[in-house]
Structures are given as structure tokens and as C-alpha cells.
Amino acid sequence: MIVSKSFQWSEHRAGLALAALLLGGATPAAADSSMLDTLQMHGFLSQALVITDRNDFFGPSSSDGGSLKYTEIGANASIRPHQDVLIAAQVLSRRAGGDGSDANPVLDYGLVDYQMVSNQQRTFGVQLGRSKYPFGFYNQTRDVAFTRPSILLPQSIYFDRTRTLGLSGDGISLYLEERFGQGSLRAQIGLGQAQAGDDLRRTLRLDTVPGSLDPKSSAIAQLRYEHDGGRIVAAIGAADANARFNSSVPGLSDGDFYFKPWVLSFQYNAEQWSLTSEYAWRNSGLENFNNPAFNFDVTGESWYLQYTRRFHENWQWLIRYDSLISNRDDRSGSAYAASGAGPAYSQFAKDYTLGLQWTVNPRVLLAAEYHHVDGTGWLPIQDNPDPAETRRRWNMLLFQLSLRF
């Protein structure tokens, strides 16, 4: 997230709930009027219906009339106490299946942004606090439906079943933007601690092992170029996220988790259509356990190709192919199945998506999409605890109403 001194939070990036927090309890009479003039407050809400013929996604979607357990509510605000300083934060409540415990409001981001240089040619600044990672094209605004091309982002890149790891982190971030005659170049690097939530423990199959998974020092960086006013956008990003599992099991040592992805992104924007593609190479594993059954090292890859078409001013349709391979050395999952770890199809997912969006007005968005999926590589574990009961080929319908204020 890069901001300038003239930055104004758009409606999807501010919220009412944090106004009192950001003002530090000050009353309007006591606060500086010029500072209050910079206060921006907005919020958003999205509710979806998920229907699947097999497997469950974000709740019991394959039974009865589907699942309504996909809800996103956000409130955020920003204020500028000085022309070089911006304070911004967002609280997010997100329910995505499971037992609903993840719906508790959490701090999505909260930071102080200080810009040391800001002119027509260059912007250079530093952010302190919790910030969204510059991961791919959509990660920094992924929870706001109005910024997404579809109800679900490509799950091979933007995992929802392990979203906390790649979503945001606590620490320091430096950013630089250089503007040229035909384009702009942006660089950002962040150092701090990634989040290691319960979703990561479930994916690593450590949720049944007594102990805690705690974040360690991590880093992320992205270089992004925009040409001709955004007609062509290209980016490359890399991360080194780490966590430590502190074992409470007698005889089992502590272990370490690492996640080292590279992401290449490209987008071409014409007047009525856009073509977007991203590719990710992901190395991850567990190490240093004295029980070798826990240790592993695997490299996977993901990519998608997406075409969106805008028509009748407020309408957009989308077609996308999305591919996930958990292990490049075992693309079919046959070796995984032979080891008795689970079904072969749990190691990949090929998703064919059709989507439609209608922006009824600037504050209301209606969307629908259809997915035909071969494989369960990104299926949420909390909704499907027994992999043997899942099915390889399945279909999904989603409908979503989104509001912003």
C-alpha cells in the first residue's frame, strides 16, 4: 500500500469504526480543524451464497440450499496529522465457513506512513505497523469485493485456506516510486513478522499436535512497473516467511516452517477488456523436527489466465483458467497417494471459471460465478476434515451482494 501526501482514501479503504481510535479520544473542539479535514471514514459489507454439488466450500455448501457462511465486513479510517504523515487502520470481520470463530473482528491493517520525499518525479516513504503485503495484483485489497474481478480470486495464487500467512505482517516497510514520461516504477520491501494462524496449522496437519506455531522474522519485496497510464502492468515479487512450532509433546523437538514464493504478474488493459496472468513458484516445508515424519520440503507452482470484458458501462464478465500443482515432482499426486497420505487429486486443482458482475450504482455490486474444478488442492480443510470423503470433480455456484459506504 503506497500513499502520497495528496492521497484520499477511496470508499473501499476507510471506515467509521476506527475514527475514535485514530483521534486518540480527542473531541472536535480540542482537535486541530485542519487535521480533521483530512479524516476519511468508510466501510463495506459483502454476503455470499455458496452452492456445490460435491465437497464443501465455506460451510455446508453441498447440502440443503447451500451455505451463507461467507461474509466480509470492514470498517476503516485515515487521518493526516501532518502533511508528511498518514495514520490509517482497518478492522475486518470475515466468516468463511468453519465454526465461524474467524468472524471475530481483527485488525486487518494499522500503520503510520511517513513520506520523506513526495514530488512529481518521486515518492519515498516508510510505514510502521501492520500492513498488507504487496503480493501479486490483488492481495492488498483482496477483502474488498469492489476491487476484485470475481467473487473468488484465483485460489492457486491467493489461497483462502492459508490466507493469514500471505495477507499481512507486523514490522517496517519501505517504498519508492519513480515516475517517468511513459510510466512509473514502484518498489516496496517489508521486514517483520508474518502471521501464522490456525488455518496454517490445519494445512500443515499440526492442529492435532500440542504446541504453538509462532511467527518468526520474515521479508517480502515487490517491483512493479506501469506503462502508459496502466495500459501495461508487470510485477515481480518474492517473500521469505517463517514460523516456529514450539512442541508440547514429550520426545518431539521444536521445528521450523518456511515459505519462499516468487510471483510474476502481467496485465494488459484495453478500453473494454483486460487480460491478466500470474505465475507463482512456491517452496515450503517443515524442518528440524527430530521425528522425520514431520519434516518435508516441497516446491509447487501455480498460474492462471484471465480475460475480463466490460460492457454496458456497469457490467463485466470474466472467463478464467486457474491451475495449482502442490508438488512439481509429483504433479498427478500419485506418489502422495501411494504413501498413504491421502487422495492423489488433493495435490492439484484445475479450475474453470465464468463470472458476471453488475455495479448497480457506486455503492452496490451484484456478482455471480460458476466454477468447474478438477482436484481439491485448495479446498478448505476445516470444511472437509476427511480427505477420503471428498470428490475429485465438483462444481460450485456463488452469488454475492456487496455494499460500501
Describe what this molecule looks like in 3D.
It is a single chain. With 405 residues, the protein is mostly beta strands. It has a single domain (11-404), classed as Porin (Beta Barrel), CATH 2.40.160. 6% of the residues lie in helices and 53% in strands. The protein has helices at 19-23, 33-36, 163-167, 198-203, 334-338; strands at residues 40-52, 67-82, 85-96, 106-118, 122-132, 168-179, 183-194, 211-215, 217-227, 232-247, 255-269, 273-287, 296-311, 315-325, 348-361, 364-374, 393-404. It has a 16-stranded antiparallel β-barrel. It is globular and about 60 Å long. Residues 1-31 have low confidence and may be disordered.
Number of E-state strands: 17
Global structural class: mainly beta
- Give the distance, in angstroms, between the N- and C-terminal Cα atoms: 21 Å
The number of helical segments is: 5
Tell me the CATH superfamily.
Answer: Porin
